[in-house]
Amino acid sequence: MRRIAIINQKGGVGKTTTTANLGAALAIQGRRVVVVDMDAQANLSLSLGIEARSGAPTSYTVLMGTTKFAAALRPTSVPRLSIVPANLDLSGAELELAAAMGREFILRDAIQDWVLEEKQRTGRAPADYVLFDCPPSLGLLSINALATAGEVLITLQTEFLALQGMSKLVEVVQLLKKRLNPELVITGIVPCLYDSRLRLAREVLAEIRTYFKGQVFPQPVRANVKLAEAPSFGQTVFEYAPDSNGADDYMRVAREVIAREDRDADLAGLPAFDEGARLPPKEVVPPRPPPPRPPARKPASNATTVGATSSTGASAPERTTPPQDALAANAPGRSRSAQPPKAAPARPAPATNSEPGSSAAPDAQQSVHPAGVPAQTGRCEPLNASAAAPPPAGRPVPRAEPTAARASAPRAEPSARRPEPREEARVLRAEDVPPLPPDAFEILSILPTDP
């Protein structure tokens, strides 16, 4: 049974994503896989659709010794893939185990008891792979996982800051190998969130392959949005998007892990890597029929029916409207006894320009304003004073009032307003800058010069 700890002291480099999808890829290839969530954030548990309530058997209860490792196992939606979930209770494990004897080996002893009991019962190991999702720190939880595991898989983001912490992480692994776990080895480095379009990513990947020859997996995990969307549905990328780049990359990572199975004699009889292995299709549950709709309500009795009836007796679709009396009674500010509004007076006929002495009717003549401007008859267009008809003969022409002249002038439209003049921007010129003192650049003389 291979025990692999997936670790990096930096967060957000793909540890949880690698644990979930690598475990699913190994399970698709026919391996029995158990993933252990050692992070109090429980992101691995949520990624596989498992939510453990407080007090349920989890990795916390295994570390506290209240439950056995086998009792904390839960199946997932992927066949042959199980998980030991975690919850927020795990955040207090380091404080509670601070004074415990041999606190670094609690998880190792629990797994050894689980393996021993299963071998006595069935004669074989209970699993082929155990993957530990370590928290982004090198505390007691990570040390328990490293003391239990036999291999270390380092996930690395192809950026400068992630590359800078690689040397420190390798030193910690070598120190734990010397003092706690002599069998611990670095089985490989998985570059994650790789974008080949970025020159920085290509340079970081080349540097890793230079300093860690033979330990960097040939296929980096490319940045893929499907890998970020799958945990929100509680699924692996092989369930959510089996044809995506993320599923293809993690299947290649699984192929590299399976190629190193010769390290464990118990895995010698497992089948070889299958390129065409896929998850079995899930059964499609037929949708439920919609509930019956309630019967339509009948129209109220005080409403009038508006519709047209054809000659054959069939009536058109009817529309119910309240009576006009009810609308008038319910109008705001109007009492029930108020009379309906009177009809507006009819517009008078347009005036005709008739000369004095003609036989036209007096009421058909154009009404003239005292200022000599014809009155407006229903139209709001201003009339030109020169085009107005002359006054009748024998009638004196009154003097025009100033207000009438202003009223007859056409008003300017708002769009015809002149734009306000803008102030010209002041340009800073060289002569406007005050002169610098003569010792402004004196500091340059004391700087060391290149030999």
In short:
This protein is an alpha/beta fold and 451 residues long. It has 14 helices and nine strands. The strands form two sheets. Strands 3-4-2-5-1-6-7 form a seven-stranded mixed sheet, sandwiched between helices. Strands 8-9 form a two-stranded antiparallel sheet.
CATH architecture of one domain: 3-Layer(aba) Sandwich
CATH homology-level superfamily of one domain? P-loop containing nucleotide triphosphate hydrolases
> Radius of gyration, rounded?
45 Å
Main β sheet profile: 7 strands, mixed
Q: Which ranges are low-confidence, i.e. pLDDT below 50, for 5 or more consecutive residues?
A: 303-317, 331-338, 352-378, 383-388, 443-447
Outline: globular
According to DSSP, the number of beta strands is 9
- The span between the termini is 62 Å
Helix content: 25-40%
Physical arrangement of strands within the biggest beta sheet: 3-4-2-5-1-6-7
Name the structural class. alpha/beta
What fold name goes in the CATH topology slot of one domain?
Rossmann fold
What does it look like?
This protein is α/β, with parallel strands linked by helices and 451 residues long. The strands form two sheets. A seven-stranded mixed sheet has the order 3-4-2-5-1-6-7, with helices on both faces. The chain has a two-stranded antiparallel sheet with strand order 8-9. The chain is globular, with a radius of gyration of 45 Å. It has helices at residues 15-28, 43-47, 59-64, 93-96, 106-122, 140-148, 160-164, 166-179, 199-211, 225-229, 237-240, 245-259, 324-330, 402-408; strands at residues 2-7, 33-37, 74-75, 81-84, 129-133, 151-157, 185-192, 304-306, 319-321. Helix 1 (15-28) packs across helix 12 (245-259) and helix 5 runs parallel beside helix 6. Helices cover 28% and strands 10% of the residues. It is built from 14 helices and nine strands. The relative contact order is 0.11. It has a domain at 2-261: Rossmann fold, CATH 3.40.50.300. Strand 3 and strand 4 form a beta hairpin.
